[in-house]
Amino acid sequence: MTTDRTQTLATVHDTEAFGAGLASELSAGDLVILDGPLGAGKTALTRGIGAGLRVQGRITSPTFVIARVHPPGTPDGIGLVHVDAYRLGTTGSDVLADLDALDLDTELDTAVVVVEWGAGVAERLTDRHLLVRLQRNPDGSDPDSDERTVTWGWRASADLT
């Protein structure tokens, strides 16, 4: 059983800083699954993870590609693979076939793999994963607010909840 942690983040900068802090808890071979609606801060969080890992390249939304590889910024560093599972197939078997075609399991030895929209799909890549759920403007009081709630915890791959 996992114990989830929850934190409220006031700004996009706070979301990136949270991701940078989270990076210090990650190792090559870790899978991070980001879950949340459009605009919840998944890419901002990934930018923070990339900054914390000190990877090369600008981290942007992988909207027009399925996966973007960011090599380590230092010879002994850890890389980052940023995946947009939303772009994968539309049915269960199509999604799994598309995921397999990316060969992400080969990247897991040298990189942290972050999968946006990956809940219910990417868990099968590893024995365990970090599930991070983001919700923007959690109380609904200010639609222009950048405030978001992040909840995260490690899961066994058999635990898809």
TrEMBL record:
Give any Pfam family that matches: TsaE
Q: Name one GO molecular function term.
A: metal ion binding
Coiled-coil positions are: none
From what superkingdom does this record's organism come?
A: Bacteria
Where's it found, cell-wise? Cytoplasm
Please state the protein's primary subcellular location: cytoplasm
List the Gene3D superfamilies hit by this protein, alphabetically: P-loop containing nucleotide triphosphate hydrolases
Give the residue ranges for region: Disordered: 136-161
Purpose of the protein: Required for the formation of a threonylcarbamoyl group on adenosine at position 37 (t(6)A37) in tRNAs that read codons beginning with adenine. Is involved in the transfer of the threonylcarbamoyl moiety of threonylcarbamoyl-AMP (TC-AMP) to the N6 group of A37, together with TsaD and TsaB. TsaE seems to play an indirect role in the t(6)A biosynthesis pathway, possibly in regulating the core enzymatic function of TsaD.
**Family assignment?**
Belongs to the TsaE family.
- Protein name according to UniProt: tRNA threonylcarbamoyladenosine biosynthesis protein TsaE
Source organism per UniProt: Williamsia herbipolensis
